[in-house]
Design a protein that fits this description.
Elements: H1 2-10, H2 21-47, H3 49-53, H4 56-146, E1 171-182, H5 192-203, E2 210-217, E3 222-239, H6 275-286, H7 294-297
Antiparallel strand pairs: 1-3, 2-3
Helix pairs in contact: 1-2, 1-4, 2-4, 4-6
Length: 334
């Protein structure tokens, strides 16, 4: 089978499909098995070559079998080398094809979204801007009304108050009267675990109306005896109250322009804004001019670069009179 795959690789037919990576792997495994089998046969025949040498009847057959085994091993080794090379090429091509497929898919998705991004962005920004403007107008009207409320009327909350989470009041689930062990000078019962210890002492009959627990004080490392008395308590099980939390506001979110050079549609202030300030900021942003394109804002500049081969010849070295030369040590100066 591996010869069939090898043939389709070495001498492909125009109608046949190229072998897959899995097919080349299987062919390589078969070629390796053939090479190992032929190599073992060569070794066995070489080990029995001396017996064939002294047996004239077996000599010719043994020589032919050894030559055939060697040829099989050589052919199989050649096939293994070629299949290994072809497998590496096929795996590389398969990896590259998968990379190309992922790249083309990501590129197609990116290009499709890029074509629709601007109209979708502008549509959403216009929707948010319209909602922000309408919210500021309604809140401004509500603030004006809240300054002079009619009798028995509650202030009108802002529109975005619906985003807040209101606090919850304390809610009592049950109230019961219980009798528990406590310290004579404490208004709270001892913990539940110590209550059970006192109960065990009473059940053993060692207490009469008063309980005691021997406990180890690890700070000073000594044993002490503590006395407790029975007290009556009102036990209340309740859900604690919670504090309300204000949600985010649309006026806290900047509405950026789509492209560089365009003014932002709305820029919030870090310390908060009143409805009237929101409306002013929207109008101010709408009146901002759009910067001209980049090519219209560039300035002309000039630069100079030397042309290779056109440099002037360097000036000659200045000649120094002989009388100015410093003589060697021990010689006089002219």
């Amino acid at each position: 089978m591996f010869l069939t795959v090898l043939k389709s690789l070495v001498a492909p037919s125009g109608r046949a499909k190229a072998p897959t990576v899995d097919a080349i792997r299987r062919a390589l495994a078969e070629a390796n098995a053939e090479r190992i089998a032929a190599t073992n046969e060569v070794r066995q025949l070489e080990e029995s070559r001396l017996l064939a040498l002294v047996d004239a009847d077996r000599r010719a057959a043994h020589t032919a079998a050894l030559a055939a085994a060697r040829q099989r091993a050589e052919d199989a080794a050649l096939a293994v080398d070629e299949l290994q090379r072809r497998l590496a090429e096929a795996e590389a091509a398969e990896t590259e094809a998968e990379r190309r497929r992922r790249y083309d898919d990501a590129r197609a998705r990116r290009d499709a979204l890029a074509r629709s991004f601007e109209p979708r962005y502008r549509e959403h920004i216009e929707g948010l801007l319209s909602l922000l403007r309408e919210t500021a107008e309604v809140d401004a009207a509500a603030d004006a009304v809240n300054d002079a409320l009619p009798a028995d009327a509650d202030p009108i909350p802002p529109v975005e108050a619906i985003r807040d989470r209101a606090g919850l009041p304390r809610k009592i689930k049950s109230k019961t009267t219980v009798e528990l062990w406590a310290s004579p000078h404490d208004n709270q019962p001892i913990p539940d675990g110590m209550q059970s210890l006192v109960k065990e002492e009473r059940e053993r009959g060692e207490l009469t109306g008063r309980g005691f627990i021997k406990h180890h004080n690890e700070a000073v490392n000594y044993f002490a005896t503590t006395h407790y008395v029975r007290k009556t308590f009102e036990k209340t099980v309740f859900l604690d109250s919670t504090i309300g939390e204000a949600g985010a506001r649309l006026r806290q979110m900047p509405l950026f322009a789509f492209r560089v050079g365009e003014p932002d549609h709305f820029t919030p202030r870090p310390y908060g804004m009143e409805p009237s300030q929101v409306l002013s900021a929207i109008e101010r942003a709408a009146s901002q001019p759009i910067e001209p394109p980049e090519q219209e804002r560039r300035e002309l500049r000039t630069e100079y670069r030397p042309i290779p081969g056109d440099e002037p010849a360097p000036p000659p070295e200045p000649t120094v009179p002989q009388s100015y030369l410093v003589p060697d040590f021990g010689q006089s100066v002219n």
